[in-house]
Amino acid sequence: MSAAYAENAASLGITQLLGGLIQLDAAMFDRILPPDQWKRLRQRFAKAKPLAEIVGTPHAELQLSEEVAELFTAAKNQAAVFGEPVAGTRHVVLSMALNTEGPASEIFKQCGVDLSAMADKIQASELAPEVVRTRAALLKAMKKFESTVTVLSETPLTRDQDSYFTPFVSVLGGRRPPEAKLWASWPYLCIEVLTPEEKMSALQARVRFYSNSRTRYVWVLNSSMKTAYTAEAETGLCEVKGSAFRAENPTLELPLVEIFE
After folding, report:
1. How far is residue 115's CA from residue 150's CA, in Å, rounded to a whole number?
2. Which of 13, 21, 139, 230 has the greatest count of CB atoms below 10 A from its CB?
């Protein structure tokens, strides 16, 4: 979830935000929480309203509670600390965990979540230096394609009525005006950056979803090993043996040296 996406929210409180984030980026919570804590949190927010439904259109009036406004400011500051251009789900949740007296932390505690352990896991995995560098290099490298395609960072893709997958980067063929609804068109390319704590089963589930949902190309970057993969639903991950990622219609060629420099 980018900060820009969050700031379009029509009406948003801490409980709504947390419930929406859990549905929006379940893969991240699955990586950072022990199974028992994650199960209790999922059960608590099983009927939470999806963020897309709360946010509405990009033209919605912004009405945030004081706590959410302060949280978004803290998340932007966290993103800046780690050198990331936008605040994502991980920065928001880290800010929740660090504010041990805040309303979000109380909800986590009620679900048995260890705030200190969760914060450590986010910083060691989602915000590991090599992961942050890879993400920053990827976004920088993708800028050269912005005259022909639309590059979106951390934009949710609807999985079913109540859940989403959020690739780190999704690419739409052709240019789209910024006021267009981001979820109106399906990307022809999704790019994931693996974290040290990534579970292969979770990655494979996302790959199958992308590949079975009209996404022609799925690229995966392993920041720790400095390796790159293409992915398909039938064959799984296949390491890129050449020097670049390639896609057609529209044509993209992304040299790996620009990412793993």
Report:
1. 37
2. 21
Q: What tens digit of pLDDT does each residue of 46-66 get?
A: 887 766 666 654 444 557 788
> Is the CB of residue 54 less than 8 Å from the CB of residue 20?
yes
Would you say 72 and 87 are in contact if contact means Cβ atoms under 8 Å apart?
yes
Side-chain-side CA neighbours of 186 within 13 Å: the count stands at 14
Domain 130-258 has CATH 3.90.1570.10: yes
**pLDDT beyond 80 at 5:** no
**Alpha-helical runs (H) found in the chain:** 3-6, 14-24, 26-32, 35-44, 51-55, 66-81, 89-98, 103-110, 115-121, 129-142, 200-212
Rounded CA-CA distance 78/135 in Å is 15
Whether 3-127 shares its CATH topology with 130-258 is answered: no
pLDDT digits (tens, 9 = 90+) for 144-161: 998 889 888 887 777 766
Domain spanning 3-127: which CATH class is it, in words? Answer: mainly alpha
**Residue-range domain boundaries for the chain:** 3-127, 130-258
Going across the sheet that includes 236-239, the strands are 149-153, 169-173, 189-194, 217-222, 227-232, 236-239
Picking from 2-6, 92-96, 97-101, 121-125, which range would have the lowest pLDDT averaged per residue? Answer: 2-6
And the tokens for 247?
Answer: 């896609």
Structure confidence by residue, pLDDT tens digits, 164-210 = 778 889 998 877 665 555 445 688 999 999 888 777 777 778 888 88
Per the document, the length of the chain is: 261
